[in-house]
Design a protein that fits this description.
By secondary structure, this protein is of the alpha+beta class. It contains 9 helices and 7 strands; from the N terminus they run ααααααααβαββββββ. The strands form 2 sheets. The protein has a 5-stranded antiparallel β-sheet, with no helix packed on it. The chain has a two-stranded antiparallel ribbon with strand order 4-5. The radius of gyration is 24 Å and the shape is elongated.
Length: 249
Amino acid sequence: MINKICLGLLFLPAFIIGQNKCNKYNEDYIPKNLKQAMEYFECITPQETLKKFSEKNEEQAVGEIHFSTGMSIRNNWKLWAGTSKIAKYFMDLGIHHPDDMSGIILTSLHRKLNQKEIELDKQIKYYQDFWAKSLKQQNERKEIEFSKFKVGDTVEFQYNYDFTSKNQEKGFMDNECLARGVIKVINPEKFELKVKLLESCGIKGIIIMESDVYTEINGEWKKTEENKIEIMKKGETRWTYYDLWEIVE
């Protein structure tokens, strides 16, 4: 069985590929753009499946396969990593979220099957407007939360990422593990606090960041380190994101 994407199917058996005109689509095939993505589905998907997909209401048809075919698109076509040509194609159009990319592909296919205009520009604007509104609301919420912090406040660490040891985790759960600091500088533009760590539960310190690291190699961004952590130790003064801390009353 090879790793193929089909409407309503996460995997398309190899014998189906071998029996139709779509032999050019090998197991590693990834389209370069929207046109190629639609051609792929039209070629490798059984006609009866395409017919059932096209006969449904557009929103229902696309929504029903968001977590099946859509997920397969996002994973197999490297939309999350952002390293494939089709991912870069969408990013150049101003579409950056993999859910939006797969949604545009499936919506466009549904419209094409129904001989409707794809209206790619309108689809792009819809997602851009959605994220602009979402970002505005998010920033408004952050501004309210951030306004509570003042220089000189004593703050308590919330362990949002992870723990440096089992003892630290157990102490936190038992409400016995406290890490406290004092705010030295405030940056409202980035919602950051520069905090000096006064107390640290555990000699290793506290984890203030955990993230994957991507490096550009031969023109492609590849994950070179997973779950990299940054640790802050007692006595250090570091910039941190505001939601790692809670004001001590």
